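comment on this one:
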Amino acid sequence: MDLIRTPNNSENGQVRAIIKKHLEINPFTEIVANGRKIIWTLPNENAWWRARNLLTAEVETIAWLDAFEPADTLLDVGANMGLYSLYAAQGGNRVFAFEPESTNFALLNTNIFANQLSDKVTAWCVALSNKDGLDRFYLSKFLGSGSGHSFGECVTDNLQPRSAEHVQGAVGVRLDSLIKDQSISIPQHIKIDVDGFEHKVIEGGLKTLASPHLKSVLVEMNRRLPEHRDIFRLMKECGFHCSDNFMRLGEFREGHFSQVGNILFARSLEWAEEIARVGQARFESDSAAQEIKRHHETGQMTPLTGAFPEEKLHLSLPKLSELIVESVESQSDGILVKGWCRLPEHALQLSTILKADGKFKRSVSEPILTKGDDRSNSRYRFQILCQ
């Protein structure tokens, strides 16, 4: 890469060299969490903290995600950069991620692309709320991986007036509208974390929440707010049970975040209690998780802990594979090669290579290509029969 010479930069070689080096750097970390490999872009240290504390910041959330069936679908409302979306997708789940903040939405898509999960995760630049339409989106900070933003009102997570560092436009939509328009189908699970406006998401999705197809909803709540306390009534009317043990595990008990935490509503109370039991056992055996919770409750800065000793850091995002061979299966009539490719010509190239190899006596078929049924699938599945 060479920078275009202009009258202002033609003479300053040092500045040009610094800019060129900067443009080549796009740092990311690579972690393996409970056997799930995640590539995570690093725009700043806050994003790095999120990745390194994936298993420790919210042990209850991870226990909940681990309890999903492989065929379950998750709606991640307030996805930020998509850490929990990626974790669920790498476990086999289909995910629809909603994030209206501009920088986070771009980073969310960067992470989906870097992990080659376009067939598993679809990101929507939409604010789920209790109304459909355009409105202003008030940013607490213009920062990738940042949070504490609000749609339609410039308020804190305690619903108190505040100033905004930046204001952008955003599209708001009710969950029930998305289901009615068949933009998405009713999921098995919903995660809601929108920094104070969780009650608006609930209000905009009451018909969906009443569906027996929906198994559970994880909501970050502030029980000091009357709007949030009313969520208990609404969810009970929709047929959900609330696990007190899960609430005690996920909630902070003092400080700014007193009575704030994740609360699980589930069709099966027994299922929710088992998740709470697993999460509590993990918390009690994880000193880093205990330290993070203590720091939140006392108002201290949470440390950049080393939760992943085998973490790999890189200065630029990896180049994606054009073709992935998933399996080579022996059959009665030959060998069947299966995999994914980004473009049809990539599978054709593999077929040509196999033909030229000379090891197959009869023939090597042209690739049989299948586009994914989901509209978001940007890859092709292929099969090549070698005889």
